[in-house]
Amino acid sequence: MNAFRLAGDITHLISILVLLLKIYATKSCSGISLKTQELYAVVFLARYLDLFTDFISVYNSVMKVVFILSSVAIVWCMRRHRAVKRSYDKELDTFRHYYLVGACFVFALLVHEKFTFQEVFWAFSIYLEAVAIIPQLVLLQRSGNVDNLTGQYVFFLGAYRALYILNWIYRYFTEAKFSRWIACISGLVQTALYADFFYYYFLSWKNNAKLNLPA
Amino acid sequence: AAAEAGKDEL
What we know:
The structure holds 2 protein chains of 2 kinds.
Chain A: H1 3-26, H2 34-47, H3 58-80, H4 82-86, H5 97-110, H6 117-131, H7 134-143, H8 148-174, H9 181-193, H10 195-206
Helix pairs in contact in A: 1-8, 2-3, 2-6, 5-6, 6-9, 8-9
Chain B: no helix or strand
């Protein structure tokens, strides 16, 4: 474990807490893409299949459980909770995310580290996480102005993988046989997808103005 | 097992 990775995990946790705060405090999920939340639930369920087979550390296991439970809880809340469900932007959140799931799964069947059930699902989860934010970014562009908590949620979500890239660079130079091309390249793609959001987020912060993405 | 297989990250 290094400082970059720990900072990344904490930033990821913060993004989830901000989202939970937004939904719980405002009893609303307006501006939040249910499709992105569903993709994240699939990402964690597919990636943490080793939760019961490979014990790494208490920290690792606890965080896996937290990520799985929180992502499933958010999807459940957006689908079932009466008040929250009513505020869901159903007509704006129309990205066909099933195509993303299919494409990532086919790609994982082609490109993986080992052709085993667990490794293919791990690669699938890495590819899917890279594109999971797309429905959310599309929704933000369509809904114009973005409320603060939603903006902060997306910001921390993007920042966590950028910190992981620093973690991979650090491990590459400090560990003998460190090769994690699948995660590295996917992480670069994932972070690049946030580039324009980060740009407009920085502008809104600098000008102390409301964050609004050009349509 | 998972550690050297590179699956020690979240």
